[in-house]
Amino acid sequence: MRRLGNATLVLAIILAVVASFAYLGLNPFNLGDADSLGHMARYAARFLSPDFTAAHLWAVGHASLETLAMSALGTLLAAIAALLLAIPAAGRLGWPLQGLAKLLLNALRAVPELVWAVLMVLAAGLGPNAGTLALALHTAGVLGRLFAEALENTPPEPANAIRLQGGNAWLAFCYGTLPNLWPQLLAYTLYRWENNIRMASILGFVGAGGLGQMLYVSLSLFQEARASTLILAMLLLVLGVDALSGWMRQRWIRL
Amino acid sequence: MLSRHHRDPAALPRLLLAALAVLLLWPGIRLAELNPGVLFDPAVSRSTGAFLAGFWPPAHDRDFLALLWDATLQTLAIATAGMFLALVLAVPASLLASRALSLSAASIGARPGWAGTCVRWPVRGVLIFLRSVPEIVWALLFVRAVGLGPTAGVLAIAITYAGMLGKVYAEIYESIDQRPAQALMRAGAGRLAAFAYGTLPAAAAELMSYTVYRWECAVRASVVMGFVGAGGLGQQIDLSMRMFASAEVASILLTFIVLVLFADLLSRVLRGRFT
Amino acid sequence: MTLRLTAVDLRHRNGVQALRDVHLNIAAGERVAIIGPSGAGKSSLLNVLATALQPSAGELAVLGVQPWQLSSRARQRLRARIGLIHQAPPLPPRQRVVTAVLAGKLGQWGLGKSLLNLLHPVDIAGARALLARLDLDDKLFAQCQQLSGGQLQRVGIARALYQQPELLLADEPVSAMDPRLARHTLDLLCQHASEQRVTLVASLHTVELALACFPRIIGVRDGRIAFDLSAAEVTPQRLDDLYANAQLSPAPTSADTATPWLPRC
C-alpha cells in the first residue's frame, strides 16, 4: 500500500514538473541551444573586466559599509524585538497574549523583506534607513518564532527554583532561563545575519541604499564593468560575514 | 583598590566587548541613517495611513482575480521548473564535489588523493560562488540577457539553487556513515555503484527532506524575483505598487501569504512521508 | 511553632498519593532529619514545607502563617525566608558559580541590584567566604557545567546558606558526596543552623549520618510518619521495620524521544 502511495507521489511530482514547463511555454532543451547560450555568453563576457578605478572603488567601499551597517543594525534590532515578542509567544504571559504575539510574528515574517523594503521606502523615503527597518521587521518575525520555540523547549527547573526562593518572574527569567538560552538565541541571530547580508545587498534594488542601489543603476545604464566590481564586493561581503559569524559561533556557542 | 581576591576575571573582557559594541554602533547608525522615528512623523503617517486605508477592501473584481490566479500559477511553475533544472545541475556536481565518492579514501585510514582533490575543490568553489551571489542578482542578469518574463526567473533559481543543493548534498553524503560504501569500493565496486548501494539508502530521507524544504524557499524566492521583471506574483506587486493601487497590493499580499502557507503545508506533508 | 502540619494529604497530579494524614510540629531552631525508603514521600514532604506543592487536604502553617491563604505576593515574600536545598541542584550549566551563589538573595534584593549582579557580581567576598567553608573557593569563577555532582551540590548548599533563611530545608543534600565529605558538609550545615538559630529539616538516605548529626529523627514510609523520636530512641528494630520490603527495582523509564528534524542550509 505504501509502495503504491509512493509511486503515485513520484508520478504526481513528474506531472507537476512537466506541467510547469508547459505552463510557462518553456522548452528546457531550447534553453541549452547554441543561439541563446551564445547570447548569454556574450553578455557574461562583458563582466570579465571589472572597473578598479580609485573613484569607483571608493564609492563601492562606502556602499559596502552602508550595506554592512544595514544588515548588522537590522539584525540587532530584530533580535531585541524578537526576544520581547517571544516571551508572550511562548505562553509566558497567558494565552490571549500568546495568540496575539504569534499572529504578529507570523504576519511580520510572511511578508518578504523586499516587500517590506518597498513599503518602508514609501513611508521613510529612499536610502538605507528604509532597508534597515525592512530587515528589522521581517527578521523580527523569523527570529521571534525561533526564539519562542527555544524558549518553550528550555528546562524550567532553574527558573522555578528562583521563584521558590522568593524571586519574581523577571528575575527567574534572567537568572534561571536566560543563561542557558542565550547561546541558542545568539546562534539563530548570527545565522540570520548571514542571510541578511545577502538581503541587504539587494534591498537597494527598490531604493533602500547600499550596494544594491548602485548595482541596479549600473545594470540599467549597461555599465557592466562597474556592475562586476559591485558583484565582487557583494561576494566579499557575504564571505566575510559568513566567516565572522562562524568564528563568533565557535567562540561563544561551544555546546 | 580591589585586591585580586575581589576582582571578577570576566569583568575586563565584558567591559572591552561593551566598549567595542558602542564604538561600532555609533558609526553604524550614522551609516545606515537609522531613524525609526520617521515612521511616526505626522506627514508620513498620513500618507502611509492613506495607503494602508486602501487595503480594505482588497481588490476582488473578476478580471483582477483571474490575473492573480494566473500569476500564482506562474510563480509555482517558476519554482518547480527552476528546482528541476537545479537538480539536473546539482546531482552530478554534488557527486563530483563529495569526498564520499573518493576511491583513495576507501582504504582503511587513508585520505582522498590529490587528483580527486583537484577536482573536488574547484567544483565546491563554483557551487559556493553560485549560491553566494543572491538569486535576485542572477535574476536581474538573466532579465538583461534573455528579456523580461518567467524564463529569467527559472534560470536564476536553477543557478542559485544548484549551488545550494549541490553543496548541501555533498555534505549530506559525507555526514552518513562511510563504511558501507567504502567496503563496497574495497570489494571492487565502481564509485557510483558503491554510492548507490552504500550511501544513497541512508541519505535518501535527508536529501528528499532538504529538497522539499528548498522548493518551499524557491516559491518565496520566485515572488521576490518578480520585482526585477521575472514574472509571477512579484511582478504584479511591483506594478501595483508603482500605481499606488493599495487595494490590489492588499489582494496580492493576501494571495502571497496563502501561497506560502500552502507551500509550507505541502512541504511538511511530503517531508512527513519521506522521513 | 515554626512548622505545623495537621492532617496533611498530598495527591500528585498523576493520581499518586504521596502523603497521607501527616501530623508534624517543629519548633524554631530545631534540627530534624527525615529518613525512609525511596519513594516514601520524603521529597514530597519537603516540597510541601517549602510551599512548592499545595497540600490536597489538611492545614499547613509555615513560620507562623498559612502560606496558601496568602496573596501570591505575600507568599513570595514568605518564600524568601525559606531556603530549599534541592537534591539535583537547579543551576543553569553555563552560569558561573559566583552568580549562582549570589542568586540566593534574589528574593531580598531589588530588581536593579539583581540585574546589576548579572553584569558584575556585587558581593564576591561574601560568596568566596561561603564557598571557602565548603572547600570550593577555587571554583568561584568556574561554570557550573565544569563541576562534578558533589561540587554542584555544594554550590546549591552555598546558595541556600547565602540566602540566610529562617527555615532551611535540605532534600538529600549530600547524596553525591563521598562519606567523609558528606559528614563534613552536614556538620557544617548543622553548625550554621545552631549558630544562626535557623530551623533545619533535612532528608537523608544514609541513616548513620542522620543519627550522628541530628537530635530528632522522623521516619517516613508510604506517605505516613512511621515514627518521630529523638536520635537516642531510634532502635535497629524500628529501622528494620521502616525499611522492610523496600522496593529494590526502580520504575521503568519512558521510551526515548524521537530526534527532531533540523533544517540544514
TrEMBL record, chain A:
Domain ABC transmembrane type-1 residue range list: 64-245
SUPFAM superfamilies (UniProt xref): MetI-like
Listed transmembrane segments: 7-26, 68-91, 169-191, 197-217, 229-248
UniProt keyword terms in alphabetical order: Cell membrane, Membrane, Transmembrane, Transmembrane helix, Transport
Topological type in the membrane: Multi-pass membrane protein
CDD domains linked: TM_PBP2 (cd06261)
PROSITE patterns, sorted: ABC_TM1
UniProt xrefs under Pfam families: BPD_transp_1 (PF00528)
Localization in the cell: Cell membrane
PANTHER family named among the record's database cross-references: ABC TRANSPORT SYSTEM PERMEASE PROTEIN P69 (PTHR30043:SF1), PHOSPHONATES TRANSPORT SYSTEM PERMEASE PROTEIN (PTHR30043)
Family under the similarity heading: Belongs to the binding-protein-dependent transport system permease family.
Name the record gives this protein: Phosphonate ABC transporter, permease protein PhnE
Species of provenance: Pseudomonas coleopterorum
TrEMBL record, chain C:
Domain ABC transporter, first and last residues per copy: 3-247
Top-rank taxon, per record: Bacteria
Membrane topology annotation: Peripheral membrane protein
SUPFAM superfamilies in alphabetical order: P-loop containing nucleoside triphosphate hydrolases
GO molecular function, one term: ATP binding
Subcellular location: Cell inner membrane
Keywords: ATP-binding, Cell inner membrane, Cell membrane, Membrane, Nucleotide-binding, Translocase, Transport
PROSITE patterns noted in UniProt: ABC_TRANSPORTER_1 (PS00211), ABC_TRANSPORTER_2 (PS50893)
Protein name: Phosphonate ABC transporter ATP-binding protein
